[in-house]
Design brief:
This protein has five helices and no strands. By secondary structure, it is mainly alpha-helical.
Length: about 160
């Protein structure tokens, strides 16, 4: 319990330190833009992304068998979250001087690779699930094997 309290206190102190630095080192106009960005992020998530994910999930439940549905839905949710994070970076790509190299990357290519990795992980997890189901079906013990064996070779006759 003490460890949890210490970790919680450290988290609160780090959060307060971050707020202190945010309000003392960032100009007011940038803080307003940050607030607008945060409100827009919530609006985009709740008004656009969530309904799309729910709609796609409902469509998937009609056309994809239950065995693979959870892996496809999880992969699509993760992919949608990654796309939402990557879109502003793709939009702002090459808008900064070369000295600020973070916006000089190929975000479209990186996003494609990341989406491929997400799809591959979902596919591998589904394949593992199918393989486990197949092995479990073949290795089910018969009713005769469930009974304990009786030892009839007792030396007390």
């Amino acid at each position: 319990m003490r460890t949890r309290i210490a970790i919680g206190a450290a988290g609160i102190l780090l959060g307060l330190f971050g707020l202190f630095r945010l309000f003392t080192e960032i100009p007011g106009a940038d803080l307003i833009m940050l607030a607008v960005w945060l409100v827009a992020a919530v609006a985009i998530h709740d008004g656009l992304l969530s309904p799309i994910v729910v709609g796609v999930g409902a469509a998937i439940s009609r056309f994809v068998p239950p065995r693979g549905r959870r892996y496809l839905q999880a992969g699509l949710i993760v992919a949608a979250s990654v796309i939402v994070i990557a879109l502003p970076l793709i939009h702002r790509q090459n808008t900064q001087p070369t000295s600020k190299g973070i916006l000089q990357q190929n975000f479209g290519g990186n996003l494609t690779v990341l989406l491929g990795i997400i799809a591959a992980v979902a596919l591998v997890l589904y394949a593992i699930h199918v393989a486990r189901d197949g092995l479990a079906g073949r290795q089910r013990p018969s009713a005769a094997n469930d009974l304990p064996s009786e030892d009839h070779s007792s030396s007390t006759r």
